[in-house]
Structures are given as structure tokens and as C-alpha cells.
């Protein structure tokens, strides 16, 4: 059998006559039927049928095993999927127990049996049949736990094996991340496998790697060298003479190179091996356009035995690359601007416990964007992510989660070094990986009492520098073929002061000029400064982004208003600045999709929506804008896809339309737009965007865009709620109006099918406020309103703005009966204890705290009736609590509706008003 196998390896299968082939297949089949009990590794997922319970009583393993109150779950699982979304600050960070009975086949007595956890956040203790089998610290890397000595076999019956896992996601100052703008969900949130290997096997005790490491020391278009190295372990009681055979297979399964190494292992011995494969001529290269993968199949063979004792397959991509400080990035000798996104690993409703299909889908969405680069931020993610990158041709940077700060402790340093080693060894064989990184904005949160220029500050910066040096050296030692990177926030001086840019080979900057601070122009200035002052350091823009809540829109977008329109403007500006600068080697948008950050407040509490996709992965306009630049085939999409329900006021009393802008994204030179079949003209595309002003009529508006010179079209339907200019208009009878006070934005509520329009001053015949000013939280960040979490509502964005000191809100509606809903939220409130510090202006101190709450009272009258007498901070106006009241109003004798505010103490205010004709 062995002989036949060997000869098969050497020759192309199609060069055999048919009859011989049949014989070969029959031989193989017979060999499979006689598989000896101790051959080849078996790996099975064990995600089903687990039990879970929280533990706030500090149970011992024995108590936990006997305790009641278990919930049946399956993996992946997190215990924080729901509590990170509620109105109560914080989420459960404590102990959870998992329990499962495994049935280990009697035949596995001869094998080495392991549990393999792809990841569990964050400190795990694994007990098997009541005994501690292994521990692991860190929530983002895999670990393997040996079981063999703990299994209890009983004759030929499978060994029923109790697995109990104690897991905690409590804060541990020795384990990164210490703090971050994402949620530290607890749970066994990735897959778990049971593995059974023959006693002689590839090393399974090497930081949960697969025990083999593939390098490609020399690759060119003409030739490629591939080396497979690793270690073999003999866990049997006798010396063994084995061969490691590696075959490199092309995509069609043909062997294109092979190498074998004979090894003799004493009982209990572990031995390393290194196998340079014969040089490959005219290799197929791996690139984003053609991600060609070979497979290196390494087997442990012994004597005449077949199949092998062990086998490991690694995907191999042949490519070479370099970063150049002036010219950027080169792949396979060609310049390639790296463009893509960052990614977090969560999904609405699931927390971080995602099936592999969702991890893969995100990489596909990046590919469909036209991206070629993924920053796997801020921690190593599910193996499915890098597998998808390999397959789809996405280059990747991976990092460990040292975020915001370090702890100057032995434990912290040791855990960082271990995590870095795990990350590298576990991800080593992915051709997509080009960068190993290890710090994200590590100086954003200087610990209490520490300033950049005081004595403790100097000591702290030295310690951060020390940790960076240790991690950098470790990384270069572990994997000299990849680049190292540290990612900084936009405080150039501080990182220079700490000496960090000098340490890693690449510098990543997270830049938010025109968002957290300053204006857009600050961005190119910063890039040029790097080029001037760090001329030998390749640069990547590792983060940039602006919040965009798909419900919010504005035609005068402003920094920090969270509208899609500001985000569009921001991305259009940033991309242009980066494309104009060849020294910007790469960039990754923050972020591919919206993600949970429990401590974050703002328009959608707990959600960071600086992203190209919504949480459920629907494209925002900015996604289409990037497609227009990155997709290589002809591309044309009408924007506004997530804004298909709009409202606005008719342009004049006798008009039946309202003009609003629409952007069309394309890589074609010009676009024609039609509205309900009527030609609106052709506009040139400037930097991927053709801009139109569309006269929307009431009801259905069908937009059709055509690329000039291409048989390409795109369609979108927009439903428009046309508001009359004069509320007594006979052509456009008044039905309802929803106004967000103190606000310059439109807010679409798809579920209730309502659109809220921005406030306006009252003019006779129409509607609006009389007097007052829009509320503005102290500080320079928000143009208006507050970013505090308003409790008791999911319409935070509406309650976060208000008009102060108004005397009236008037609507000159026709005589009739109306329902009026008045919305209030007291925005003056004590500062938050723990302020989110994502003020990346370079100032590490928290900002945004509002003034202390003050007593306030006022009364509201509707058409002279005191419907809300004495609204006050002592009654309904509790700080940051939504309160709404529905009242009835009769409009008589052409007086319309007059809502009046009479102050008692302090300034009256109104956050929102809805008026509906009954
Ligand atoms: C950053 C951080 C990232 C945050 C992001 C933001 O610089 O690296 O973790 O989520 O800014 O949105 O503030």
C-alpha cells in the first residue's frame, strides 16, 4: 500500500491507465477499511448540549457541579448578550460555570485526548472528572487542555467524562485589555473541539498551535521556497522510528513538491524537524486579485502502516511584500495601496458568540467593498476570520488587546508576552497575515496621578516603552517574516516622548481630526507631519471614522451630529487625502460594522456606530462610496438606501414638492437620474459621487440612475411625507407633524413609520417655536444637544436635544381636533462617574461632563388650558429620564394650537412635539 501511495505522489494522476486507477482506488478503499485503532488524529466539535450557570456565591468546583439552576445552552455562548443593552450601567463581570458530559470511545485509551478551546473570555479553569486539567488567561486566543490522564475507561464502554469549566470575565489588572471602547463579554464564545491523536503526533503542546510552521523564505514570480518546520512528540512508552512526509499540493490536488525527514524518537521525547521543500518553479502567487492557495499536507508515517499516525494540513499562499516609508506597500513587487476596515467580533443580539458563518460574512463584506486589508482589532479573533482572509485574498494585521494603558506588574508583562506568542503561533500559517501588532493607543488613559511631564509619568512611559521593546523583540524572534506595528492615537508628541514610534517597524495612527477634535484639515496636516518628522517610518492610518446613526440626517451636517451626511463628508475627505499621499501605505476605516461598547452613551446607547455597515450588516452610504472607489468592475449605486422614508416641507405654499439632495456613487464619469420616469439631468461624478437635487413629491418616488456610456442602472424607491408650508393648505391637508426641538436633523423611525423634522422658528400660517435657544452641552464637541444616555426610551437621539427658554410652540393648523404629544428630558445632570475618554484630540483627560443638576419648574398650557401645571425636577423632570405626555387640543376660530411655557424656576424647555389631526 505504501508503495502505491508513494508512486501516486510522484506522478500526475491522469498519466495512469484507467484499469490501474481502478486498482489503486480499490486498494485505497481496502486500506481505509483496515484502519488501525491508533491511526490519524480525530477532531470533533463538542458545541452541543452544555449547561451553564452564573455564580455570584463563589462556589468550589464540587459545589458548582452539584448545584442546581443550570440552563441548557450550546456554544458559542456569552452570558452578556442582553445585559449590555439595558439601561442599567455595567454588565455582569463575574464567574460563570459550564458543564458537559463527554463520551470518549474506549478505543481512545490508546490516544492522547485534548480539549481545544478556540477562545473563552477571560480566565478559564477546566476540570475533568473533578480534577483541574488546565487553566488559561486571556479571552482572545485558543488553548488546549490535555485530558488523557483524567479519563476513566471501563472496558469497552465509552468513558463518560464530566467537564466543568469555571470562567470569569472580572476585571483583572494583570490581563489586557484593562479598559477599551468595546464590551468584554464573558463566556465560551467560540467553538470547542475534542481531539484524539496517536501517541506519536505533531506537537500539541505549543501555545495551541498545530505544531507545524510554514515559511516561504524566498518567493518570486519564477521560484518559491517553502519550508515546513515543527516538532514531533512521542508519548508512547517505546522508541519510535518515523518519517515526516510533507507534500505541497496545488489547487487541483496535484503534488508539486515533497520532502521527507526520518526521525527516531525515544519514549517521551519531543524532537524538532525542518523540511525545506524542493524549489517550486513558476509558482502561482497569492494576491487579493488571485488568492491562490497551495496545501502543505504533513504526515507522520511509521513502517508500513497506513494511514499515517498524524496529519496536519496548512494552507500556503506564495507572496512577498514590503513596506516603504516613502512609497507605501508592495505586494509581489507591485505597489498596492492597502485599503480596508477594522472589525470587532460581535453581532446584534448575539454578543460575541457568533457562528463561523457570520465571521466569514464580514470578511466577504469587506471583499465586496473592494477592500484588500483587514485590521483584526483589537484582539485575535475566531480562526474563521483569518481562514476567510486567506481564501478571499484579504491582507491582515492582527494584534493583542493592550488598549489605553498598561499595568506595571510582572503578571501583566508576562500575560502580554504569552498572548503575543499564542497569537503568532496560532496564526503563523495564514498567508493573509502581514503584520503582528501589540498596542492600541496605549497612552490614551494615563493612570491616575500620572502626567506626561511629572516624575511618575516619566517612569510610566519608560515602562510602556520597555513592554513595547519586549513585545517587539519577541515578535521579530518568533516571526522575522512579518512586520511589527504599534498603533497610536493622534498625540504625536506624547508617543514620541515615550519613544514608541522608534520601536516597531510600522506606525499606525488612529486619526479623528474633524471628529473628536479640530477640523478635517488637521488630518492631512498630521500625515505630512509624520512624513517630515519620521521619514523612515512607514505609516498606516489604522483608524478613522465618524459616528453615523442611519436614522439621523442633515442638510447642514456638522461635526459630531452623528448624521450619515457628516460621515459621508468625512470619508470623502479622508480617502482623498490618503490617496493623494503615496507614503500612506494603508488605511482601515473604523469600523466595518456597528459594535457594542457597553459604556458608550450617545444617540444609540451602548453602540459605536462609526461604521460602513449597520449592526445587521446593511450598507450605509459610506460603504457605497468606498465601493465606487475600490470595486474594479463598473459600479453604480444610488445612496440613501437606508433613508427610504423621508419628510420635508413643500418649497412654497402652492408647490407639491420638496427639494432634497441625493448622492449617487459610481466609478463611471457621469450619471443620469430619473424621478418617476422624468429625466432630472446628467451630473458628472466627482471623486466617485454624482450629486443631485431631487424634487420629491408626496408618496412614492422612484429613482433610477443610469451610468453614462454603460448599460448600467440602479433603482431606489423613496417614500416622501410632504409637509405643507401653510398648515391650512387645501392641496396638502395637514395630517401630522413630528418635530425634534433644539435639533437640526431629520430622524426617521422606520418601525413607527414616522419622520421627525428639525425645529424651525414660527411664521404665521406655519409652525415653529417662539423664542429661546437650542440646548448645547458644555464643551466644544457637540454642535447642539447632549450625548448622555437618556433612560426610559429607545429614542435617545430625540431626547438628547431640546429648546430652552422658548415661550411658545405654535401651529396654525385648521380648526379641528388634535392629539398633541409633548416630550421632555432634563439634560442638566451630574457628571458621569466614569466618563468615556474617546476624546482623541490628544488630551487624555475626560471631557463632556454636564453641569450639576439644578432645580427647575415650569407649566405648559395648550390653547390656554394648563395641561401640565408645574412640571419640575421634583416631579417628572428627573435628570436624563424621558417623560412624554399626550394631551388633546381643539383648534377653534382659526387660532390653531398654541403651546405655552410659563417659567417657575429656571428655564422651561421642550424636547419634542408630535401633533396629529384626529
Ligand atoms: C479609537 C479606539 C477604538 C474606538 C474608537 C472610537 O481610537 O482605538 O477602540 O472604538 O477610537 O470610536 O472612539
UniProtKB/TrEMBL annotation:
Transmembrane segments: none annotated. Residues 213-319 form the Glycoside hydrolase family 2 immunoglobulin-like beta-sandwich domain. GO terms for molecular function: hydrolase activity, hydrolyzing O-glycosyl compounds. Residues 328-628 form the Glycoside hydrolase family 2 catalytic domain. Residues 661-710 form the DUF4982 domain. PANTHER family: BETA-GALACTOSIDASE (PTHR42732), BETA-MANNOSIDASE (PTHR42732:SF1). This is Beta-galactosidase. It comes from Hymenobacter taeanensis.
Amino acid at each position: 500500500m505504501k508503495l502505491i501511495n508513494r508512486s501516486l505522489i510522484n506522478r500526475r494522476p491522469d498519466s495512469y491507465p484507467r484499469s490501474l486507477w481502478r486498482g489503486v482506488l480499490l486498494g485505497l478503499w481496502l486500506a481505509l477499511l483496515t484502519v488501525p485503532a491508533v491511526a490519524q488524529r480525530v477532531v470533533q466539535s463538542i458545541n452541543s448540549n452544555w449547561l451553564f450557570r452564573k455564580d455570584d456565591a463563589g462556589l468550589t468546583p464540587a459545589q458548582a457541579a452539584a448545584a442546581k439552576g443550570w440552563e441548557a445552552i450550546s456554544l458559542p455562548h456569552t452570558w452578556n448578550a442582553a445585559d449590555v443593552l439595558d439601561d442599567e450601567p455595567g454588565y455582569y463581570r463575574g464567574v460563570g460555570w459550564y458543564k458537559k458530559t463527554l463520551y470518549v470511545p474506549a478505543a481512545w485509551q490508546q490516544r492522547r485526548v485534548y480539549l481545544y478551546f478556540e477562545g473563552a473570555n477571560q480566565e478559564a479553569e477546566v476540570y475533568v472528572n473533578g480534577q483541574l486539567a488546565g487553566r488559561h488567561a486571556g479571552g482572545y486566543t485558543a488553548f488546549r487542555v490535555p485530558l488523557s490522564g483524567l479519563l476513566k475507561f471501563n472496558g469497552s464502554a465509552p468513558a463518560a467524562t464530566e467537564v466543568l469549566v469555571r470562567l470569569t470575565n472580572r476585571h483583572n489588572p494583570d490581563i489586557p485589555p484593562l479598559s477599551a471602547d468595546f464590551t468584554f463579554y464573558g463566556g465560551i464564545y467560540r467553538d470547542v473541539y475534542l481531539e484524539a491523536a496517536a501517541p506519536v503526533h505533531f506537537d500539541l503542546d505549543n501555545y495551541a498551535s498545530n505544531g507545524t510552521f510554514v515559511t516561504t523564505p524566498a518567493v518570486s514570480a519564477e521560484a518559491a521556497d517553502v519550508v515546513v518546520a515543527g516538532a514531533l512528540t512521542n508519548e508512547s512508552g517505546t522508541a519510535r522510528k518515523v518519517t515526516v512526509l510533507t507534500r505541497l499540493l496545488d489547487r487541483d490536488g496535484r503534488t508539486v513538491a515533497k520532502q521527507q525527514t526520518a526521525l527516531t524518537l525515544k519514549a517521551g521525547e519531543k524532537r524538532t524537524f525542518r523540511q525545506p521543500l524542493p524549489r517550486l518553479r513558476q509558482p502561482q502567487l497569492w494576491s487579493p486579485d488571485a488568492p491562490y492557495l497551495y496545501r502543505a499536507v504533513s504526515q507522520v508515517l511509521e513502517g508500513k502502516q497506513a494511514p499515517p499516525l498524524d496529519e496536519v494540513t496548512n494552507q500556503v499562499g506564495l507572496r512577498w511584500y514590503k513596506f516603504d516609508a516613502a512609497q507605501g506597500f508592495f505586494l509581489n513587487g507591485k505597489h498596492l495601496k492597502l485599503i480596508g476596515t477594522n472589525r470587532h467580533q460581535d453581532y446584534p443580539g448575539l454578543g460575541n458568540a457568533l457562528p463561523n458563518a457570520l465571521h466569514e460574512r464580514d470578511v466577504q463584506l469587506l471583499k465586496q467593498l473592494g477592500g484588500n486589508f483587514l485590521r483584526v482589532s483589537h484582539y485575535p479573533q475566531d480562526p474563521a476570520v483569518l481562514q476567510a482572509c486567506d481564501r478571499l485574498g484579504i491582507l491582515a494585521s492582527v494584534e493583542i488587546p493592550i488598549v489605553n494603558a498598561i499595568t506595571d506588574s510582572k503578571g501583566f508583562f508576562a500575560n502580554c508576552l504569552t498572548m503575543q506568542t499564542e497569537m503568532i503561533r496560532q496564526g503563523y500559517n495564514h498567508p493573509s497575515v502581514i503584520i503582528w501588532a501589540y498596542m492600541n493607543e496605549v497612552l490614551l488613559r494615563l493612570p491616575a496621578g500620572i502626567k506626561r511631564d511629572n516624575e511618575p509619568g516619566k517612569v510610566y512611559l519608560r515602562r510602556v516603552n520597555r513592554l513595547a521593546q519586549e513585545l517587539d523583540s519577541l515578535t521579530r524572534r518568533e516571526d522575522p517574516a512579518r512586520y511589527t506595528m504599534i498603533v497610536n492615537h493622534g498625540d504625536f508628541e506624547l508617543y514620541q516622548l515615550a519613544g514608541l514610534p522608534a520601536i516597531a517597524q510600522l506606525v499606525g495612527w488612529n486619526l479623528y481630526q474633524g471628529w473628536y477634535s479640530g477640523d478635517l484639515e488637521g488630518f492631512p496636516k498630521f500625515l505630512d507631519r509624520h512624513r517630515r518628522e519620521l521619514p523612515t517610518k512607514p505609516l498606516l492610518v489604522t483608524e478613522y471614522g465618524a459616528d453615523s446613526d442611519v436614522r439621523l440626517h442633515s442638510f447642514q451636517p456638522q461635526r459630531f451630529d452623528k448624521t450619515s451626511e457628516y460621515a459621508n463628508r468625512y470619508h470623502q475627505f479622508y480617502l482623498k487625502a490618503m490617496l493623494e499621499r503615496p507614503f500612506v501605505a494603508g488605511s482601515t476605516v473604523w469600523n466595518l460594522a456597528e459594535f457594542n461598547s457597553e459604556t458608550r452613551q450617545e444617540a444609540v446607547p451602548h453602540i459605536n456606530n462609526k461604521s460602513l455597515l449597520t449592526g445587521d450588516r446593511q450598507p450605509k452610504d459610506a460603504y457605497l462610496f468606498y465601493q465606487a472607489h475600490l470595486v474594479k468592475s463598473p459600479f453604480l449605486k444610488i445612496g440613501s438606501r437606508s433613508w427610504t422614508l423621508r419628510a420635508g416641507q413643500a418649497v412654497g405654499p402652492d408647490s407639491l414638492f420638496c427639494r432634497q439632495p441625493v448622492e449617487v456613487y459610481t466609478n463611471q464619469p457621469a450619471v443620469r437620474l430619473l424621478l418617476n420616469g422624468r429625466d432630472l439631468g446628467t451630473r458628472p461624478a466627482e471623486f466617485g459621487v454624482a450629486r443631485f437635487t431631487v424634487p420629491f413629491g408626496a408618496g412614492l418616488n422612484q429613482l433610477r440612475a443610469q451610468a453614462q456610456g454603460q448599460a448600467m442602472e440602479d433603482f431606489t424607491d423613496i417614500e416622501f411625507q410632504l409637509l405643507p408650508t401653510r398648515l391650512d393648505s387645501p392641496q396638502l391637508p395637514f395630517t401630522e407633524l413630528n418635530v425634534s426641538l433644539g435639533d437640526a436633523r431629520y430622524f426617521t423611525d422606520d418601525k413607527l413609520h414616522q419622520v421627525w423634522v428639525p425645529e424651525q422658528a414660527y411664521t404665521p400660517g406655519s409652525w415653529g417655536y417662539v423664542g429661546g435657544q437650542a440646548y448645547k452641552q458644555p464643551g466644544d464637541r457637540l454642535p447642539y444637544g447632549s450625548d448622555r444616555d437618556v433612560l426610559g426610551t429607545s429614542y435617545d437621539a430625540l431626547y438628547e436635544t431640546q429648546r430652552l427658554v422658548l415661550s411658545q410652540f405654535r401651529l396654525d393648523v385648521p380648526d379641528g381636533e388634535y392629539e398633541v404629544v409633548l416630550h421632555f428630558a432634563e439634560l442638566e445632570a451630574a457628571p458621569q462617574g466614569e466618563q468615556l475618554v474617546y476624546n482623541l484630540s490628544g488630551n487624555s483627560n475626560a471631557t463632556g461632563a454636564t453641569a450639576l443638576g439644578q432645580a427647575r419648574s415650569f407649566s405648559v398650557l395648550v390653547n390656554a388650558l394648563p395641561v401640565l401645571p408645574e412640571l419640575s425636577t421634583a416631579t417628572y423632570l428627573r435628570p436624563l429620564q424621558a417623560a412624554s405626555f399626550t394631551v388633546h387640543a381643539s383648534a377653534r376660530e382659526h387660532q390653531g394650537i398654541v403651546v405655552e411655557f410659563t417659567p417657575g424656576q429656571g428655564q422651561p424647555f421642550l424636547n419634542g412635539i408630535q401633533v396629529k389631526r384626529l
